[in-house]
Amino acid sequence: MELHLPWEQSALVDPATYLPVVDNTPFESLQASGGALQADVNIAYHLALLECGLTHPDILVPSILLIDSPRRALGSNREDQERGRRIYGRFKALTDAYGPRLQLIIADNDTAPLPDDAFSTIELDYTRPMVPGVAQPGPEHTTRTEHGYEA
Questions:
Q1: pTM of the entire predicted model
Q2: N or C: which end of the chain has fewer CB within 10 A?
Q3: Which residues on neighbouring strands pair with residue 34, listed in sequence order?
Q4: How far apart are CA 32 and CA 19, in angstroms?
Q5: Cα 94–chain centre separation
Q6: DSSP class of residue 107?
């Protein structure tokens, strides 16, 4: 399953930087554009890199990928929602193809736009923290990093 990005005519990996080039635009310029284009290119690039490492044992890349909020930059129109389904479809295709050889961790605020049995879901909140056994005191006891550390 391909992502079929609507604006993309050509994509390649620059042999000098190993970074993506989309429609003759280098990665650094794509990063500056932000939004859905940046998010989609980042996801597509990292999924391609992951699959390349799985299919070519001589390419040493980790077989784990963590993606935070893959649909955050997408809009709410029908085309954007379909692109979100294709992104999740690509996640599912990779897990179906490579099974235990890879680990995808997708942190998303909404449920996956695929059937419930497509992925395992772990819900985290203050009563069910990410690290079992480490109590989370609640939102009133947290401090954002940019505001400094409070003992």
A1: 0.71
A2: C
A3: none
A4: 14
A5: 13
A6: E
Neighbours of 74 (CB within 10 A): 19
CB 93 within 8 A of CB 52: no
Q: What's the CA gap between 13 and 54, in Å, rounded?
A: 17
Angle CA 38–104–122, to nearest 5: 110
For a pLDDT cut of 70, what percent of the chain falls above it?
A: 77
pLDDT attached to residue 4: 63
Instruction: Give the model's pLDDT for residue 36.
Output: 74
DSSP-derived 3-state class of residue 21: strand
Residue with tokens 């449920």: 111
Signed CA dihedral, 118, 119, 125, 128: sign only: positive
Per-residue CA distances from 101 to 51, 57, 65, 130 (Å): 10, 12, 12, 23
* pLDDT tens digits along 29-87: 877 666 777 888 888 899 999 999 999 989 999 999 998 888 887 777 888 888 888 88
Q: Is the pLDDT of residue 130 over 60?
A: yes
CA distance 12 to 102: 23
Alpha helices in the chain (DSSP H): 27-33, 35-55, 78-98
